[in-house]
Design goal:
The protein is mostly beta strands. It has one domain: Jelly Rolls (Sandwich). It has one helix and 13 strands. The protein has a seven-stranded antiparallel β-sheet with strand order 1-2-3-10-5-8-11, with no helix packed on it. Strands 4-9-6-7 form a four-stranded antiparallel β-sheet, with no helix packed on it. The C terminus is likely disordered.
Length: about 160
């Protein structure tokens, strides 16, 4: 059964200075869902600390604006062309000088779908989806861009020094 609603009917809540969250897909709205979906809106000169729970997988897609994500010693500039994959336990900061909007998804207790997740978690990754191959459907006029494949999401082997 499909659930249909307009995001403009979902109340926004402040989750930081200049950052609002709209909880679009929740267990209350869709009982039994395995994924939670939020829209985050950033005003100019705002920031947000991401903290993905240790048992969850998360990712977000930039919808508009520009931002910078900082994690450990890594800083990545983001635009509407980017999707960011956040591993279990990820901690980082997203800042926006000019304002931004993104769609944030989280799969709680993700190891129930893949037990290897606890021993081989995926890595932090930023993908520019405009540089990925566009595949045409064999059945209709749809186009697809695969952002996650077994080879692209496999943990990188460690290098011996």
């Amino acid at each position: 059964m499909a659930v249909s609603f307009n995001a403009s009917t979902v109340a926004a809540e402040a989750i930081g200075s200049g950052v609002e969250r709209q909880r679009l897909l929740t267990r209350e709205r869709v009982p039994g869902t395995n994924i939670l979906l939020d829209r985050l809106s950033f005003t100019a000169n705002s920031c947000f600390d991401f903290a993905v729970p240790a048992a969850s997988l998360a990712w977000f897609q930039m919808l508009s604006g520009a931002a910078v994500i900082a994690h450990a010693a890594v800083r990545e500039n983001l635009s509407e062309a980017h999707v960011v994959f956040l591993p279990p336990g990820f901690q980082g900061k997203l800042t926006s000088a000019s304002g931004a909007r993104l769609l944030y998804a989280e799969v709680p207790n993700a190891a129930r779908f893949d037990p290897a997740l606890t021993t081989h978690p995926p890595q932090f990754r930023v993908v520019d989806w405009t540089r990925e191959p566009v595949l045409s459907s064999e059945h209709d006029a749809r186009k697809r861009i695969y952002l996650v494949t077994p080879s692209s999401s496999a943990p990188k082997p460690s290098r011996a020094k």
